[in-house]
């Protein structure tokens, strides 16, 4: 029997990973203080624009896709019938 | 020294013919050697036109060598090597031969300096790629392959119509920048755009590509769309409509990619999204934007192939490829998982991976041209890529719910191909200068500035943050076995409906007119039959009366004659006599 990786079977490890991710999120927000964002459009001068835009885009995408599914979803054998 | 070498296209196409005659290690070495020979040929080329052949008074240019065609030829050849290596264990010669012919014809398209050789290789490309789709030898793949070739033949015909008009107008078959003016340029544009899977001519791609074998889809992902991108860069740079088509392509497919259950179909929609970035770049048309489109095609070919290789490995080792059926595979396929993550990071344009150094050029170009709405769409689409390709593909394949499948790692050649592709993805992301040197225009672009890196990291990571929150809250889209309607509905369902309408409508019309016509003909026939009987009776009865037949004997004679004519058992002599007497009668009457 080949040996298996089971690292994510342990909820503790998943929690650690998540914590590391949240720390990284805070770090990229802090990093913005130290760089000049030199945007050509007025919006990306706002602090944290990219973070907010990324987050909102993602949520909009998921909920719009959910709505789209109501229109487009068919059974797997739709074209065979 | 160029003169005594074959054009790269022919090295592949003629070289592929020998494959069925070889066996074992010789065959493997031979197949790997073909792309290497081509690559060496390409390295030895000098700029300018080579391999010029006279044909019916036209000059065929099979080697238009400039910076633009060379960079595409390089990446296609690298891709050919990766694809062959990945498929090395496959016993099916059909796949090897059609794969290499496909590569060869693509190089033919890229290096063609005239429309005639372009069109020739264009059609070879369509046919050979169809064999890669039907190579799975399932009913679904045959049907999808059939729809695929129909679409491409239609596109080819439109292109041909455009070419014919163009040649008639300009008097030359050579081509370079065309630009959108006049009917012929629009026809050529549509023909090329169909191969680039431009919306709304895109449905063949997500329909057919997921139907290939685990290895043939890797080939498919690289060549058709990117050779069309190359042609658009050459013939229609700066066409505004490409910005709109590109904006639609970066945004619409990501919704489908989010919904789709089949991993390779998710990747197909993602492929469209990536080509959309390139089309936006071509549409903007500035030097930075065109450089960005070329660079993005280069990086994209490699990381998209890597993702399709990872998906192909999963399909080959587990026999399954649907999100609902797989999951938790990192436990026994850690290397495949790692390579898939590299591909995912590259396509998401994570800093230090290849997508970052190419995609940011296109986005920066939209900033320089101050197209705010396009810039917003591109950034939105970047987040979308993070969702479907960056998170969904690796998460639902290798993590997520444990499907209980304990598949082994794929064979060594597949791992090697993925390893090299992953190495290139990281290599291009870190040492991007060699790639920038290959680009058609001089590059003054610096991808790694503080603003770029921080902005991109925020965009990607807060997108991922949204994913984490949504999936923890149970709001993330559930994976379900389903089919999502796309533009192929028009010819798959509406087409069938139209067929039924035509069947019911036209065929019943057919039946009615048949009935009317047959009734008329039958009436006519019986009229003439009875006319003949009546004439025959009229003539005969008079003769019989003159001969002295009366009463009973006359009745018998009449019945005999009547039956003979109706049954058609009349002796020929009598028939002839009736006919002659009929003619005589006509002659007397007129």
Q: Order of SSEs of chain A, N→C? A: HHE
Q: What integer value in Å does the Rg of chain B equal?
A: 34 Å
**Helix percent band of chain B:** over 70%
What general outline of chain B do the C-alpha atoms trace? elongated
| Contiguous uncertain segments of 5+ residues of chain B | none
pLDDT averaged over residues of chain A? 83
**Which sequence of strands runs across the widest sheet of chain B?**
1-2
Structural class determined from secondary elements of chain A: mainly alpha
Biggest β-sheet of chain B: count, sense, barrel?
2 strands, antiparallel
Secondary-structure-derived class of chain B: mainly alpha
Mean pLDDT of chain B: 89
Radius of gyration of chain A: 21 Å
Oligomer designation: heterodimer
Give a quick summary of the entry.
The complex is a heterodimer of chains A (about 80) and B (about 600). Chain A is mostly helical and about 80 residues long.
Description:
The complex is a heterodimer of chains A (81) and B (590). Chain A is flat and about 60 Å long. Chain A has 81 residues and is mainly alpha-helical. In chain A, 56% of the residues lie in helices and 2% in strands. Chain A contains two helices and one strand; from the N terminus they run ααβ. By secondary structure, chain B is mainly alpha-helical. Chain B folds into three domains: 1-235, no CATH class; 237-482, no CATH class; 521-589, no CATH class. Chain B has helices at 8-17, 24-43, 67-86, 93-111, 115-134, 139-170, 183-195, 204-208, 216-235, 240-259, 263-284, 287-318, 334-347, 354-368, 372-398, 412-430, 433-438, 450-472, 489-492, 494-547, 551-567, 572-589; strands spanning 48-55, 58-65, 483-484. In chain B, 73% of the residues lie in helices and 3% in strands. Chain B is built from 22 helices and three strands. The chains are: A mainly alpha (81), B mainly alpha (590). Chains A and B meet through helix 1, helix 2 and strand 1 of A and helix 10, helix 15, helix 18 and strand 3 of B.
């Amino acid at each position: 029997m080949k040996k298996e990786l089971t690292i994510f079977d342990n909820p503790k490890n998943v929690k650690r990973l998540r914590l590391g991710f949240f720390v990284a999120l805070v770090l990229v927000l802090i990093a913005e203080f130290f760089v000049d964002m030199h945007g050509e459009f007025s919006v990306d001068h706002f602090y944290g624009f990219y973070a907010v835009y990324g987050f909102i885009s993602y949520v909009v995408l998921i909920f719009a896709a959910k709505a789209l599914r109501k229109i487009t979803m068919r059974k797997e054998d739709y074209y065979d019938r | 020294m160029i003169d005594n070498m074959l054009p790269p296209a022919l090295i592949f196409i003629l070289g592929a013919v020998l494959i069925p005659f070889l066996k074992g290690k010789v065959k493997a070495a031979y197949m790997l050697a073909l792309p290497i020979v081509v690559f060496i040929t390409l390295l030895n080329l000098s700029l300018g036109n080579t391999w010029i052949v006279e044909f019916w008074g036209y000059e065929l240019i099979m080697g238009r060598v400039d910076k633009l065609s060379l960079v595409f030829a390089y990446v296609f050849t690298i891709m050919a090597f990766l694809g062959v290596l990945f498929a090395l264990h496959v016993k099916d010669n059909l796949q090897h031969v059609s794969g290499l012919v496909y590569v060869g014809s693509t190089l033919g398209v890229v290096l063609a300096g005239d429309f005639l050789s372009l069109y020739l290789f264009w059609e070879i490309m369509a046919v050979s790629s169809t064999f890669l789709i039907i190579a799975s030898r399932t009913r679904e793949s045959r049907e999808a392959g059939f729809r695929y070739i129909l679409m491409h033949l239609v596109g080819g015909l439109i292109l041909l119509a455009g070419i014919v008009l163009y040649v008639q107008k300009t008097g030359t078959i050579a081509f370079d920048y065309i630009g959108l003016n006049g009917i012929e340029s629009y026809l050529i544009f549509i023909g090329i755009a169909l191969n680039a899977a431009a919306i709304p001519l895109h449905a063949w791609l997500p329909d057919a590509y997921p139907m290939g074998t685990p290895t043939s889809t890797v080939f498919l992902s690289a060549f058709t769309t990117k050779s069309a991108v190359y042609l658009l860069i050459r013939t229609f740079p700066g066409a505004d409509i490409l910005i709109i088509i590109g904006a639609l392509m970066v945004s619409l497919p990501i919704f489908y990619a989010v919904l789709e259950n089949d991993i390779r179909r998710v990747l197909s929609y993602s492929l469209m999204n990536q080509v959309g970035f390139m089309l936006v770049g071509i549409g903007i048309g500035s030097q930075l934007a065109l450089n960005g489109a070329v660079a993005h095609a280069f990086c994209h070919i490699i990381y998209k192939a890597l993702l399709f290789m990872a998906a192909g490995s999963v399909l080959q080792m587990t026999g399954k490829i649907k999100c609902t059926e797989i999951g938790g595979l990192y436990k026994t396929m850690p290397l495949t998982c790692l390579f898939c993550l590299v591909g995912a990071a590259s396509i998401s344009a994570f800093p230090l991976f290849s997508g970052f150094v190419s995609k940011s050029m296109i986005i920066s170009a939209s900033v320089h041209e101050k197209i705010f709405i396009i810039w917003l769409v591109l950034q939105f689409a970047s987040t979308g890529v993070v969702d479907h390709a960056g998170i969904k593909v690796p998460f639902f394949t290798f993590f997520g719910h444990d499907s209980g499948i304990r598949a082994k790692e794929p064979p060594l050649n597949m791992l090697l191909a993925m390893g090299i592709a992953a190495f290139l993805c990281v290599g291009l992301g870190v040492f991007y200068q060699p790639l920038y040197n290959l680009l058609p225009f001089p590059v003054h672009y610096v991808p790694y500035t503080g603003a770029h890196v921080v902005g991109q990291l925020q965009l990607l990571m807060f997108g991922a943050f949204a994913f984490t929150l949504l999936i923890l809250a149970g709001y993330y889209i559930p994976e379900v076995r389903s089919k999502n309607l796309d533009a192929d509905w028009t010819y798959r369902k509406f087409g069938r409906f139209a067929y039924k309408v035509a069947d019911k409508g036209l065929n019943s019309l057919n039946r009615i007119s048949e009935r009317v016509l047959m009734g008329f003909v039958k009436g006519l026939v019986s009229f003439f039959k009875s006319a003949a009987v009546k004439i025959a009776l009229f003539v005969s009865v008079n003769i019989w009366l003159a001969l002295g037949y009366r009463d009973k004997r006359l009745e018998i004679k009449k019945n005999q004659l009547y039956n003979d004519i109706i049954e058609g058992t009349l002796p020929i002599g009598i028939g002839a006599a009736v006919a002659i007497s009929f003619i005589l009668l006509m002659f007397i009457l007129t």
